[in-house]
Design goal:
Helices cover 66% and strands 6% of the residues. It has a three-stranded antiparallel sheet, with no helix packed on it. The chain is elongated and about 65 Å long. The chain starts with a helix and ends in a 6-residue tail after the last helix. Pfam families: L6_membrane.
Length: 205
């Protein structure tokens, strides 16, 4: 496949994925669709880190915008500067940044999914409090932290925000899938950009 044609496919795909990543990360700040818990500071630390905005979002969208612009300039008639090796080099560099951002988003989302949400729950020793019930559980082999992703019955441990466990699981899982796809596409574009640096673009050849 020509370097320009590949860019016209990878660029728009990264634009869509980057937008999804930003949307998922923003929604994590508003569990249950309300802003009250964000205002009160009752948001998990990995949701506050918004990895889907700066990692899977901005870094990827910057690369995607350049890749898409270069790809479509190559597809139009009369655009003589579309296939320069400089554009291919910039594309490869931005794709490397996108790869790093997506990788950071993947790691932080995985940790956030594993630790579980910050919620108001009834601790047996200290009474109701805000904390991480699935992370704070004693690792006895049967603790909540060991199986909450697989045992939906334990999700009722969180009393507030309502439905926060499902909210956390769905959105962090979405971030994991999106960032994994971004890493694959960014890696492909790095190779594509390197080929463009070495061989130039093949549009019209």
């Amino acid at each position: 496949m020509c370097v320009g044609k590949c860019s016209r496919i990878v660029g728009p795909c990264l634009l869509v994925l980057g937008t999804l990543s930003v949307a998922a990360s923003v929604l994590l700040l508003f569990p249950g669709g309300t802003w009250r818990y964000l205002a009160e500071g009752h948001i998990s630390q990995h949701a506050k880190a918004v990895p889907g905005i700066w990692g899977g979002g901005i870094a990827v969208l910057l690369a995607a915008t350049h890749i898409t612009a270069v790809g479509w300039r190559c597809g139009c008639a009369g655009c003589s500067d579309c296939g320069t090796r400089r554009n291919a080099f910039v594309s490869a560099v931005l794709s490397k940044l996108a790869l790093l951002g997506a990788a950071a988003c993947f790691v932080l989302s995985g940790v956030g999914l594993t630790n579980g949400p910050l919620c108001f729950y009834n601790a047996t020793e200290h009474g109701p409090l805000w904390g991480y019930p699935f992370l704070d559980a004693v690792p006895s082999g049967k603790g909540l932290g060991e199986n909450y992703l697989y045992d939906h019955h334990t999700w009722s441990t969180c009393l507030e925000p309502v439905g926060v466990v499902a909210w956390n699981v769905v959105l962090f899982s979405l971030l994991l899938l999106v960032s994994a796809a971004e890493m694959v596409l960014a890696s492909l574009q790095i190779l594509n950009g390197c080929l463009g640096c070495l061989c130039g673009f093949c549009e019209g050849k």
